[in-house]
Design brief:
By secondary structure, this protein is an alpha+beta fold. It is built from five helices and seven strands. It is 41% helix and 28% strand. The strands form two sheets. The protein has a four-stranded antiparallel β-sheet.
């Protein structure tokens, strides 16, 4: 599951000397583009009433921004942390230590269920069950959830 091209996107200085990446996930591009595509289709259907051109322009800008967000987003599970890398202009990293993870959530809307993608949220102690780290638009989210649970359980046993 560790793809070499994704692994290169994580700077080595971000990881401690004893830390290794176990799994790297790239979000599903369709999850980032589905809403702007729907708006684009509505814009095409609305061309006859004049608002269609505006909706098409908004959807095209939204698609470009979401594509850039997708390109800049990467999720990883190491032997010590869960890490999210994102950001178009600046790079942002979010992480949570494995030993602090209390709950893992799977969230799938109707479109997500139909297209087999969803969001995985990880919450830590003291956050009242709200996800602090999120893997957005994961393809096959049940498999991602299963893999994350197995890795976290195995690492917590050590």
């Amino acid at each position: 599951m560790v793809k070499e091209k994704y692994l290169r996107q994580f700077p080595k200085e971000l990881l401690s000397s004893s830390e290794e990446i176990l799994i790297v996930y790239k979000p599903w591009l369709g999850g980032f583009l589905i809403k702007p595509i729907i708006l684009f289709i509505i814009g095409l259907l609305s061309l006859s009433i004049g608002i269609g051109v505006i909706l098409i322009l908004i959807s095209l800008i939204w698609m470009v921004v979401n594509y850039l967000k997708w390109r800049a987003t990467l999720y990883a599970i190491t032997n010590k942390r869960i890490i999210v890398k994102k950001g178009i202009i600046g790079i942002n990293y979010e992480d949570a230590r494995i030993d602090k993870i209390q709950n893992i959530f799977l969230s799938q809307g109707i479109i997500g269920r139909l297209l087999n993608y969803g969001d995985i949220g990880f919450s830590t102690a003291g956050v009242m069950g709200l996800p602090i780290i999120e893997f957005k638009s994961c393809k096959s989210p049940k498999l991602v959830l299963k893999n994350a649970n197995e890795i976290i359980a195995r690492l917590k046993e050590k």
